Structure formats: C-alpha cells, structure tokens
C-alpha cells in the first residue's frame, strides 16, 4: 500500500487559494484545515505568483476534435487537482491600502485584474477579502462597491476580516470559511457535472476517455464527499476497463495488459477504501472477490506471467493491509452460517492473514514464473533496454531517447518491455518478501488459534528459507511444524517436512539428525503411489521425493550405505566424515523414532526372590520397510549386574569384548522384519533386593548406529504414532497374552527371608505393681547379626496408641504401663557395656543394640515392664539387623514379633469394721447428718473395734502374701492403736486364684474425731511361683482406708449372755446401760415374749442411771426350743432424749443345744488357731462371719441337715412296697388305714392316728392297678389333705396311662414314673405340680452289676421308647427298631444299630401282652445278638400273659430272655411272678423315698 | 471438478484422502485439507455461531484458496468429510447432495466387520464408490 502515491491513499480535500497579505496566511490555512470537512490552502504571498494558478499546458482549441488519448489516466492528474487547482481564490487586501492612497488603489486594481486573468477559463471562483485592523474602522461603502465591481463578484463574496479583535476575527473568519465551503462545493459540482455531461453525451471516440471521465467524476464526487456517486463512477470505470482488455489495441498486448491492470488496481483500491471506510466489510470483500476473479486468468503471455503474479499478489497484500487498518469488524448482522448459500463468505476472508498468505503464495508463483521466464528469455534478448522509465500515464513505460540535447520519449516494444520488467524483477529479493508475508500470516493465524493454518504458513516460510539457503532457520521452522503433523498423523505432510529436514541437516553437517530424520522417513506409514520417480525436477515436490514405499527403502538403504562408509553421491566429505563417528540415537516413549525401533520388556514374574532366576522377555519392533540386522543387543537394567548382551551369531566380531560379569549370549539371528515383533527371552538373576527395572535396550546396527531404546512395559505401551491409524493386523509384543497385556518392565526383588528367630515369652498376665519380666530371645538360625537393633514398643491393645488417656496425661505424667528397663543376660561385661551405651528407653519405647552374633548363637534379654493400672498392652518387638559387616550393611532385615499382655490387679482388698459385739450406742455423741455420713463407719472410743481385711486373689496364679499391716498415718500412731489379731504368721500365706484371705485387726481409738484417718493397708506380696524362686520380687501394694468417725456414745447398751444355752437349762441375760454423761438418765425398757424362751422379770420397767455409772437389768431365761433362737426382744428408751434402741437380730440371738455339747470349746478354739492361714478362708459368697468364739457351734449345728419327716399311708396292695420304702429311710413312718367295706360294697375306711398327722408331711402310696381299688383310694386321697397336714404327696408308681405321684406343702405335686405319653401331664389341675421320675437309674445300676456290662447294647422296640429313654442311655450303643402293627400282628424291623454279638437289652416303659418284646427279641436274635434281655418299668401283664416269658414255659433258647427286669410299680404282677426267672424286680422303694424328700 | 476428498478422524488424523487430479499436487491438497480443519474446529467450537444450526451436518464452504474451494461436512460421530473442488460456482445443494452420498458410502465402509474403528479406510470398494460419486458430481455440474 505504501507503493501508492499519497494522493491516492488519502481522501481528496477541497483546495482553495489565498493571495496577498502573507502575514495572515498561516492562521487562515490553519483555520481552514481544521474545518469539517477540512480544506487545503494554497497560499500565495503576493499577486505576482498568481500566474501559477493559470493553466499550465498549452491551450487546446476547444473546437478541435479530441485526439485519441495515449493513456487511460495521467499520473499527475489527481495530484494536480489536489495541489494546484484551487476551487476558489481569495484576494486579500488591507483596508487602508484600498481606501487611502490612490496609487495603492490602482495597484490593488491591477492585482485583481491579474488574478482574474489567471483564473480565466476556469470555473475557479474569486473572493475578495478586506483586512481591517479594528472593527471600528468603517469602510466607505463606495470603496467596497468599487472593489466588488472591479472583481466582478457578488457582494457576499466580499468578506471583511478584522485583524486585531479576537471575536471579530473569528466571526469574520467563519464567514470566510462558509464562503469558501460554498464556493468549493459549487466548483466541484460544476466540474463533475461538466465531465458527467461528456459521459452522457458519449461524444468521445475511445474507451480510455470514458474510463478517465469516470475517474474524474468520481474524484470530483470525492472532493465534495459524495461517496455513493464516487463509488458508482469508480465501479463504472472498472466495468469499462474490464471490457477494454479484449477490445483495446492501442498498445502492444503485454503493455496494454500492464496498463489496464495498473488502472484497475487504482480503481480497485479506491473502491475498497471507500467501502471499508463506510464500514461495508462484506461488500468490500465481495468486491475484492469479484475483482480477483475477473483478473485471475488475465495472465498474459507466459513470459510475463510473473508480472501478473506480482500484481495479483499485490492485490491480496493491499487488501489485507486495508482490512488490517480498517477498524470495521465483522458485522453482527451477518448470518452466523459462513460458507453456505445465504452467506457465501467464510471466516478467514475477514482476516488479513488470509490475504497475506495468499499474497505470499502468489508471490511464490511469481518467483516460479520468473524462473521459467529467465530460462526462456535470457538467451533471446541480448541487452536490456536502457533508461526505461514510467510515462505520464499510469501503467505505461517509455524509453528516454537522448539525441544530443534533446530528449525524446519513445514507446517500447513488448519484447523490450518484457526484458526490462524481468531485469527489474530479478533485482528484487522475492524470498524475503515471501517470508515476511508468511510470517505476518503466521503470527496472525497463530493469534487466531488456527494452528494448522499457521503451520502451513510456517512451512511456507521454511521452504523459502530453504530455498534461500538459510538452513538453520528452515530446520527450526520445519521442526516446529513436524510436531503437529506427527501428532495428527498426517504422514504425507510429515514426509515432505522430514525430507526438507533431512536435507537441512545434511547441509548443516549434522549426521545424527540426518540419520534420525532418514530413519523416521523410512518408517513412515506410506504405501501410496506406484513409485514413479519421474517428477524429480518438479520444483513443487520437495527434496523428499514422492512418498512411496520404494523411496522409503531407498532412504533406509542410503542411511545404511552411509553408515557402512559407502559414500553416496550428493554428500560432501565433511558430512561423510562426521558420519564415521558412532552416532548413538536415543529413543524414548515420546520420541518420533519409536516407529523405527520399539523395545518392549516384560518380566514373567511380578516379584522374585533374590538370587533366583526370573525370565524376561525382550521384544523389538521396527516399522522400517526392509529387514534390519542387529549386530548386538544389550539389555540394560538399573542393577547393572543383570545386564546382558546378545549378539548375532553370524557376526564373529569381537566387538563386545565382554565386560567381566556380563552375560553374553549368542543368538542365531537378530533380524528385525517389518512390523514383526522379534521376541527374545532371557533369564536374569538379581542378588540385590529392591526394584529391578529394565532401563533400555541398546541395539547396535552396522557397528556405527547405536540405538538406545528405552524399555517399555507391555502393559503401559502406547500405540505407535502414525501407525496406529493404519489398518493392519495388530500384533502383541509378547507371545503370552497375559504378559502382553499386563507385563511390566520392572520386577520387585523381595528381601531375603530373615533367618533369625525372635522369641517373646510371657508367663501369663502381668500384675499391677510388679516388675513384669518378658524374656526376649534371639536365635540366629541362618544369619549372623550385624549391628542389630532391637526396638521395643508398648501400645495400648485397645488401640489409641497412647498408654494414657489425654486427660490423665494432663493430670499426671505417669504412664499406666512403663517400660522400666532391659536387662541382658549375656555373660561378658564387654557386650553389656556396649548395650548399656546404646540402650535408650522411654516410657513406652525402647531401643537397644544387639551385639554381633554369628550363626547358631543366641542372645537374650529381659524386658522389665511395670503396670500401674490394669491395662491390656501390645508389646511389639522388632529386630532389625544387617547381614554383612560393611558393604551389604545398606540392606537391613527385620523380624517382628508382638505379644499381648494383660495387666491385672492382683489383689482386691476390702475391709469391714465391726464394733464391739452386743454393744450398741443408745445415744450418740453427736447427731449425724443423714446424707453422706452413712458411708463413714463410726468406731467406739477406747473400745476394741474389729477391722476385717479381706484380700482376694483375682489372678489366675497363686500369690504369696508376705505381710499385711495397717500403716497408720502420722498422728494415728498415738491416737489409735492397731493390733493384728489373726492373719499372717511367720509362714507366708499362699492364696490360690479366686480365694480370699482375711486378717483381723483390733482398732482401739483413743481420741474422738470425726473423719479420722486410720492409715493405709499395706500388702507385701509376690508370685508363688516355683520357677522364679531366686528372683522373687516382693511387691508392696497399698490401699488407703476410708476415714472413720470415732465417737464416744453417751449411752451404751450392752447385752451379755452366755455363748450358748442348753435346752431347759436356765441362764441369765443381762442388759447393761452405761451412762457416760454427767446427767442422771431415765431409762425405760420393754421386753417382748419370745416363743422359745420363758423368762422371769418385768416386761416393762423404768430405771435411772447415775452419771458415769452402769445400770444392769437381768433376766433369767429358760430356752424351750433348740437351735438358733431369738432372745426376747428388748427395747431400751432414753426418756430425756426420746431415743430408743432395739438391739440387732444377730446380737439378740443365741444358739440352744438340746443337750450339753460334747466338744470342748477351748480345744476347738486353739485348733482354729493352729491352722493359721486356713482358718478364715471362707467361700466367696459367705456373709461377714460372726465373732470367732461362737463360730464352731454354728457350723456344727447347721451341717446336720434336718430331714423331712413323712407319714406314709399306703393302700393294701402296696403294703410290701411301703414297707420297703419305710425301711430305706428313717424319716418315713408308716401309718395305716383300715380298709374295710360296707355291705353294699362301698369302702368303709378309717385312718388310724389321724390326729397325729396334724401339721405333718403326709404321703400316700397308691396303686391303680385295678379299677376296683381305685375308688377307695381316691376316697383316701380326698380325705387325707383335709386332716390339717403340712403337705400331701401322692405316690402312684404306675399310673395306668402315666406312673407315680406326690405332693408337698404348697402346691400338691404328683410324681409319675416313666409316663407313657408326655401330653398326659396336662391331665392334672393347675394346683397340682406333676413331677416325673424314671426307673432307668435302677436299670443302669443293675446293668453295671452284670458280668458283661461292656457288651451291653440297648434296643428300643419303637421310636416312642427311643424318644423317652435314649437321653439317659446315651453311653450305650443303641438299636432302634421299627414296629408296624397289622391287627394283632406286629412286624418288627431293625431301623438302625447292629446287635451282632452283643447283649441286647430291650428297654420299654410298660409291657402288656409282651408281643412286641417277643417279636423284637426274635428279630434281634436273628441278627446275631448273643443275649437278649428286657426292661420295662411297668409290668402290667394282664391275664397272666407273663407266663409266656417264664424260662420254664419258653419254647426254646431262641425265645428266651436272659433277664427280664421289671419294677414293683404294679404290685399284682410282682406278687405273681415273684422271682421266677427270667424276671427280676428292681424296687422303686429307695427312689420313692428319695423323691418324697424333695 | 472435485480434485480431492478426505475423511478426517477424531484426532484430526486423515482416515482417507484421495485426489482426483492428473497434476501432481497431492501434497498441496494435503495441506489444503489439513488447513481446512482449522475452519471446522472454529465452526464446531464456536457455540455462538453454530447455535441455530446444531444439527446441521453440512458445514458449507470452508474457505476459498488459490484455485480451490473447500467444503466441509461433519457427521454425528464427529468424523469430518472434506471436499476440494476447482469449480467456482458450486451450488450448496449440489455439495450437500455429494456429501450425503459420500456419507452413505462411508457408513457402509465402516460397517464392514473387518474395519477397525479409528483406523484408516483401506476398503477398495469404498474407493471405487467414492470415485463414482466424485465423477457424478462433476457430471452434474457441467450439465
């Protein structure tokens, strides 16, 4: 755009001229240019210069026919009109010059004349300005009229300027401006109309004029800011111009085209500018499109094509610049849909960059054209015509021809012009222009986020650089672009790029780059093309050539050749020399060279033991087009010991003079085929634990090319860039699919197993207070220990870590569990010192070092832990050690052990105060408040109070109590004497787990005190363990006694009576009332009768007790009942204080012996003293013991358990059984009933001694064997309970549907033996308690007496029997039979069990006909039972059916029962069969007798 | 005349690119197709502009370059079709029609069970079908 002349680029401004008064010119012109619209001023200092305004050229005869113009537009026409042809001329005269001197007036007149003549023939307007110095100077009217007449102007064009007055000056200047504006407008309108009239008349011969006139009209329109008209005429001009291309013949064709295009350019520029200034972006772009389209094809002859392209490029550039400078943006009204029918424009067309890019492209086109032209033209044209210069017409060139002094202008021939243009073009550096354009576009696109467009520009730049020989810049740009293409997989574009890059690196002497670019090119996924190589010379194809598979192979071959030292053509020596060097290439996971070589490494295991081999698979893949032979492959690990090398067997080179310790392996062939994995599996052994990772695979190809290929795990392997889009068969890197999908390139080498045993021994729970020892033993089995370290940690087993609660931590710093120390048991002092040095122990944490141990050694230490509270603690002990001494010491092995240890409180101590026996305060010394003092015990002053201390072992181990003392507090020693009465003697008391130990102290306080502090109970104990004899540690445990209230009661009541009484022997019972007050006390007392005592003395009485004296009330008592008896209850009342006292029941009871007891009290007392530690070991639940002297009698008495004394009635049938029962217990007395009947058959019964059974326990033995006797027995059952008896029990051994019964005080109970059907218990009423007994124990007893008790098998004839009895007979083998009744027939089968060789006992509850038993016996015998016996509880046997079983009656041994046990529940049967074999009667008598005692 | 058609995948990678010119300007066409992706990105990613036409698959003229015009089409699976033509006046309807046919051919090609999605289209029958469509487009405009 800068190429265009100024007048073209800026909008035209109206021009006025001012003449005369030069001193005023600056201010006037400034005022005019600041006007809106501004005006330019042509200032002429004096009138002599006015001739400039006169027409310069020769005067043309207006009548002469217009000649054909030599060009379309004159170059300077616009300039002329903008600078030299004013629209109006103002003549400035000073007022005093005009009015005063006539000479001056004359001068002014002549000046005016001159001016008028100068603008003669033009439509330039004239204005006269009179300059006054002040407003007050009135000009004479006639002067002004004269001047106006002289100037031949209208009066309004005579303007008066007032010089020295600011406001007047401005006002008058405004007036002048308005005059000018009006005149200008008129002038340009007139001019425009004049030219327009010519166009309309069409009175010109050539098209050129038409165009020129259009231009002029448009320019005049522009002068007066009539943009639409300007646009209209410009467009008209362009249209005509476009037509002219084909029609005009005025100039030689090439130059004609050039001229037309140059004019079109101007027109186009004007139009674009106008449109853009008006904000019509869309129209501008549409116009531009039309413009380019119409001239796109107008190339002209090929020789000058470059001119076209240059011009074309310039169009784009200029339009781009215009777009860039214009502020107008894409209007919103535009349809959002770009590029479719309703909006044919696209986004980029609004962006200047688009035009820059195209400008660059076309400029490049121009360069190609020049190259073509030079090839064609240089030979033909000998010389370039000299002194060619632009002519006066736009787009025309002429040659200056000098002949002597005269210079003539000659037109050029096309040939001459072409060579001139070419020479001009060649001087020009297109490359930099192109690069600059591309760069502009690149930056612009980049800022728009159009990276691909930017890349394309960048690529264009790079190619230009390349063409210009600036390889490093080119390479840099290409590199940047290549990244995008790689990423998006545009292989073809990448190919071209790499081709350039490859050449650049070749030129830059960078062999490594060259090789890597070449290899990448060779590995690109390109298959297209048939391999035509015939377009080598096409400059549009880059150095890469066409992307074909052959080309790829060729490139690979070239690289190989170079590597092998075969110099290929096209490379210089330096480059080849550089290639001689070994060039290691690194390929990592993001390298573009991954497609050249990829190494996938997978271990077959995830973890491996140190020293044991693990398989590792190495797979290599190459996309190179032809097979590659690898000389040597080195696999490198992070543990360099594991590296191994594989080299091709064909290669016999000693290339790898193997490093010592490296595995070298020869493989038959290491050839990589295209797209096929080469898989190698190798075994690796690692000694070092930790991570073993494959780092890289180093492949050596052709000795020079070394590729370090970073190993990749198959599991995390990514697709190959570029190749991933190829439609080809996917192959897995590993043969094993699992490995291919999840294989890892690293393997975890485990730590070697620790071969050291760490033992923690604990002897059960720890006890609070003791120093608990945990022995720790280290036994070295397979490892020696170096710089071992033992860490000990105590953690709360319930979690939480801390061994104290946070709150407690605030209160006290002490821990509940403390690690006190560690003692080693090593013998030598040296190591002990060492240990002591390093030992570091805190409350719950300890570290100590372990001495050096060799294999087989053991070492132990003991942890001393002390519990302050009962707490469960986890003890963690870990041993860390290293194997070797120094170099392997880096690696440490750890052994961990943990142990939970419960801390327990060993002894619980409780205590009880006992005040003096049978002595109670009637009146206390003070009144106690009721609420909290209840807990405080009160002790009597100067009396011997008992303190019983109870120590209970809560642990599971026996404890040894060494001493138990009361440690009085400081002042307590004098104030209170404590004596131990019983308890620990010189022998230590051993308390078994869960046992109690009691000690009695006598406390005699000597001072009255409330809240007296007695002191602490101090226990000294140790574990009673045999193992720790030598190191027995005593623990002192203290417990504080509560505070007691010591008082001296004012009135004390004490009772005295002998320790025991004897039935019928009188004794005296004293009640002593002591008055310790200083007042006379009136006492009332009353005595209540006791059932078991008769006494002499007053029931109620009163007495007076003198101060400090006693009053004794005595009564003589005779005990009437034996046992522990309540003494008559005495109540003592103090009248003065209205206080009454009834002694407690325990104090007011005495034991009465029926006769003089036969033991000697003295002895028993001493005996209890002799067994010191056992004397007061009493069961846990025992109540506080009564005072010692009375103890023994009590125990002796209570041990004799009184039996229930029962009167047993019986029915006549059961007499025998009743007698047996009575015989079996002395607490049962038989009573009789007279069983008679009236004549009508109703029973006539009489119960003998009916009065004697009053209040006694009564039982009746009934037998419901036959219905006849039931009625009378029921009568008895009704009658007996009505005789005021304590309880009634009905014994019914065989209840026809049940069995045996009884009742006690309270509910009547029924005892039934072996009830047949359990549901029958509900036959009884709610007030009857059925009790079910069984005869099975009798059977068991009998079976034990058999000669073959071990061979007995129990058989149940049916399921019912099994249900009833199997629980009681569980320890016998059992047979269960199945019984099916078919009418009278019974079919018995064995359901389970095996009778073979056994003595089978059939057990049932009752037998009637005995059919089942017989069937059963037969079956059992048939199954090989050696003997068969039977037991039934109730042998009913109606109709003498028992006879069938008698041995004498049986058909043979197969029908025999060895034994047939029955009970005597059915008296009839028993009587009948007596003891005939096989029957044996097991009597229920004992069982009934026992049952009656329940 | 259509000089080039291309199918571009999700990662803006070429899945199919075929030029129909005698001249050896394949590389140039590659560039053009590649650059036109920028316009597609712009149109697809600019929600303001594309709001009223969310469901429109035909993207219209992408941009005119040198002697070519580039038209775009975006399938509902975000696969892009690009067509480069030398015709100066292409009716939108024609372009739409072409793309519709082309889309059908593409659907058939990727429905092939042996085609792996995301890979280049190597089907020969797709190629021949495409060239038929391209030829018919050229024929349609000349008539």
UniProtKB/TrEMBL annotation, chain A:
CDD domains, per database record: PRTases_typeI
Signal peptide: none
Span of domain Phosphoribosyltransferase: 1390-1435
Membrane-crossing residue ranges in chain numbering: none
Pfam families: Foie-gras_1, Pribosyltran
Annotated Trafficking protein particle complex subunit domain residues: 256-523
Protein name, as recorded: Trafficking protein particle complex subunit 11
Organism the protein comes from: Eleusine coracana subsp. coracana
Chain's gene name: ga02511
Automatic annotation (TrEMBL), chain B:
GO CC terms: endoplasmic reticulum; Golgi apparatus; TRAPP complex
One of the GO BP terms on file: endoplasmic reticulum to Golgi vesicle-mediated transport
Domain of life: Eukaryota
Subunit structure as annotated in this protein's UniProt entry: Part of the multisubunit transport protein particle (TRAPP) complex.
Keywords in alphabetical order: Endoplasmic reticulum, ER-Golgi transport, Golgi apparatus, Transport
Keyword Acyltransferase: no
Lineage: Eukaryota, Viridiplantae, Streptophyta, Embryophyta, Tracheophyta
Family under the similarity heading: Belongs to the TRAPP small subunits family. Sedlin subfamily.
Entry-linked PANTHER family: TRAFFICKING PROTEIN PARTICLE COMPLEX SUBUNIT 2
Name of the protein described by the UniProt record: Trafficking protein particle complex subunit
Subcellular location(s) of the protein: Endoplasmic reticulum; Golgi apparatus, cis-Golgi network; Golgi apparatus
Cited InterPro entries: Longin-like_dom_sf, Sedlin, TRAPPC, TRAPPC2L
Gene3D superfamilies hit by this protein: 3.30.450.70
